Amino acid sequence: MSDAEIKISWDIGSSYDFFASLIVLHDPGLFGLRPSWAAGVRSRLQPNDRQLLEDLMPTMGVPIEWILSSAALREASAALSALQQIPAIERLTHLTLALHLDKSFQQRLNAIAEAGKWQTEDLEALKAVYSPYKLPKERFLKKCLEAWATAHETGERLVRALQAYYQVFFAEEEKHVQPLLYQGLVQAQEQSAKMSLTGLMDTLSQGVHLSLPADISEVIFIPSIWITPLVIIRRLQDNRLGFLFGARPANVSLVPGDVIPDGMLRVLKALADPTRLRMLRYLAEQTFTLAELSRKLRLRPPTVLHHLSILRLAGLVHIVLQESGERRYSLRREGIPVTFDNLEQFLRVGESQVLPRE
After folding, report:
1. The CATH number of 262-353 is which of 3.10.450.50, 1.10.10.10, 1.10.510.10, 1.20.1290.10?
2. What pLDDT, in 10s, does the model give residues 241-256?
3. Which end of the chain is more exposed for a tag (fewer CB within 10 A), N or C?
4. Is the pTM of this model over 0.70?
């Protein structure tokens, strides 16, 4: 199906950022966030609630399909109220595996809940489910299976922990997020009128070029303040694709009170490294796979991938995700002038006007 034939839809709500914020706070390095600040937010929770979320977060996600299932779930407080009204085992279905699961694996999880225990083959099956995504460490996969083996108890504890997190942190954060989400939605919709679907996805993701499966009929774009500058893409039922994109303005820091916008700081740090500058020089000439770039630089692939991740956070590389699963990288030139424009604006207007969040 061509870009012109694919329907573009939009959605918005604080529920998406409620769950996204938990992901970011439990893996701050992935998003370029200071670990000490994230740890400070998590420390507001009681030890039992904090430990449960730390155990389950690597296998949790943003439950895009569940939130889309009802207009009543768009706001975080309403979503939490709705969770209380459903059976505990369904809470785990929606939250601890926010991926598109086939019926056979869902039946496996239900069998674990009924039996009250899991087997080695269940662990291997869970690894296979996560293989297209970032594979959590085995101990977290085991925690997930243990949660299903005690589904009712875990479902009750999980809702209590999420409610506590909302009360001690996100209820106040929601006030800051709401206007920025609407601002990001309007800007994205304006961009959509000027470019193709592929171009829009590339722009909103800051450099991810995705080859859409042939059967996708609709892409639903959803702004998020917390996942900036990354993107969460989920295949949904009925041949739809959920596209959660970062919408935090360049002059806004995620940490209240920070005087330096974190997006600008990420780019300047990324550029202040000779290896990454060499990589950008090569990527300006042609596209490379990880293996090709490793050979070019004479560095181990994990080292090169580390540097590429930093450049990706800074919005300085394009990533082409091919249907084969291979990734190719190139320079994202538009990220460079934007950075220095932001720096010029930062120096010109003064600290008191840089951050609308306090």
Report:
1. 1.10.10.10
2. 999 999 998 778 888 7
3. C
4. yes
